[in-house]
Design a protein that fits this description.
93 residues, mainly alpha
């Protein structure tokens, strides 16, 4: 009987620890993805990457960070410096 209680407690603690580790890993993943998105935006501003790269990253950020208003507000601030409209005319042809 005592062994069963210990096994149940050990299982519960193990599950809570696994959940905590998963939440921490997901948080780190989100931070790193956002850092890389900002890096791509910086590279586009410097001309090292294309606007298509930025469009893909923008779509990613807007889909992944929908539940994080602070991150989206920061991203909107970053994106204000770019014109992603498809209506621009390229006169360099």
């Amino acid at each position: 009987m005592v062994d069963e209680k210990l096994d149940d407690r050990f299982f519960d603690v193990s599950v809570r620890l696994a959940e905590s580790n998963l939440e921490a890993a997901l948080s780190r993943f989100h931070r790193e993805c956002f850092r890389m998105a900002k890096t791509v935006a910086g590279d586009v501003a410097e001309g090292k990457r294309t606007m298509d790269d930025l469009r893909m990253v923008d779509d990613f950020v807007r889909s992944v960070y929908t539940d994080q208003p602070r991150a989206l507000a920061e991203w909107e601030e970053i994106m204000c410096q770019f014109d992603l409209s498809e209506d621009t005319i390229d006169d360099e042809k």
